[in-house]
Amino acid sequence: MNINLVSEGFSFMVLGMSSVFLFLVIMIFTLSIQGRIINKFIKNEIIDNDNKTICFKKEDNNELVAAISVAISNFKKR
């Protein structure tokens, strides 16, 4: 009974890494399909602030970029 532990360890490593890689590929594929489905049914509409609902608009990021840049500059000053 001659067992080569190095070759068995290598085969288990390849099996484990390939199963993790396959799982990640399947997860990325399903999440991209889910994102397409959600974007198809949910529209990005502008809702007035009187309703107090969260508004998502992709084109208007100037205020967000300005706030992030001010926060970064304040953090670097400290």
TrEMBL record:
InterPro entries (UniProt xref): Na_pump_deCOase
Pfam name, any one: OAD_gamma
Lineage of origin: Bacteria, Pseudomonadati, Campylobacterota, Epsilonproteobacteria, Campylobacterales
GO function terms (MF aspect): pyruvate carboxylase activity; sodium ion transmembrane transporter activity
Localization, UniProt: Cell membrane
Biological process, per Gene Ontology: sodium ion export across plasma membrane
Key word Cell membrane present: yes
Protein name: Oxaloacetate decarboxylase, gamma subunit
